Amino acid sequence: MTMSNDIELGLVELTPYGYIDRDHHHRTDIFWRDHQAWLAEKGYIPRVHSQPDRTPLWTDKREACQNYWDGAISKRSDLIDAIRLSDGETVMMKTFSRDENPHEKEITTFLASEPAKSHPRNHSNVLYEVLDTPGKDMSLLVMPALDRFHEPGFDNIGEVLECLRQIFEGLQFLHNCGIAHRALTDRNIMMDSRKLRSRSYDDIPLVKNPFSRTPQAPRYYIIDFGLSRRYPFDNSHRLNICPEVKDDPFAMDVCCLGNVIQRRILETYTGCEFLQPLVDAMCDPDVQRRLTIKEVVEQYDQILHSRWWWQLRARV
């Protein structure tokens, strides 16, 4: 049945916050609603508005439903946050098809297993467990709930440089493992800010306290390996990229990361202009001249060591 037919039959209504069915379920919640009992058996309760037997907290209130944890709408049906019953921690769940995308589970599991898991330069997302849904080829990755790396904003130069240092380090680790991310956008760079802010998931709006990254820098992560590939090394420890791969995926990662820095840092803040030559070299249209991630890290280390402490505290 099409969306237009659903509307005509009164099964869904269009609100300013998306399509909602008559049981107050967003269209992105259908999978989670149908698997709510199974997830509870596994020890997880997904975002409460996906539960079939509970009236959402926001339905009788005049405030926007987005202000409530059970009303916030995900733009992706494959993602939802949930409460882990064993300790009350908020986690993030992501679904994927094992048949359509066999690489995601393989790469994510590899990065979350020893010895890669304990490597200090590994900035891939922590993986709590993998759940295989009953009767389908779908799997769920259970991970910590993270925040986008640039929200809220940076306060000073030092916070920006520490963020980029970790992301460069993380991408270099992936490339050293033969893994090309192939989708390194700003949505796939996150931070763990649990020690720096408080949240509330009861019947009051979500609380996000302002915080500073300076006293205790958050850890930054590269996430979502749905499009990633792992390429083998030959006997001389050089990567074997298949001949049918027209564009160098590792060079593409560097360019994509450069574009993220251009948009989220250089075009957003003043005071970071000294990073422009590095970003330009990362985005050079000539792949042969474009920096490798190893060269990016080397040049970035020189930038870091050239800054005085008082320059790091300069506001952006």
Automatic annotation (TrEMBL):
InterPro entries for the chain: Kinase-like_dom_sf (IPR011009), Prot_kinase_dom (IPR000719)
SMART domains found in the cross-reference section: S_TKc
Domain (Protein kinase) ranges: 62-316
GO molecular function, one term: protein kinase activity
Pfam family of the protein (one): Pkinase
Chain ranges passing through the membrane: none
Protein name: Protein kinase domain-containing protein
Organism: Cerrena zonata
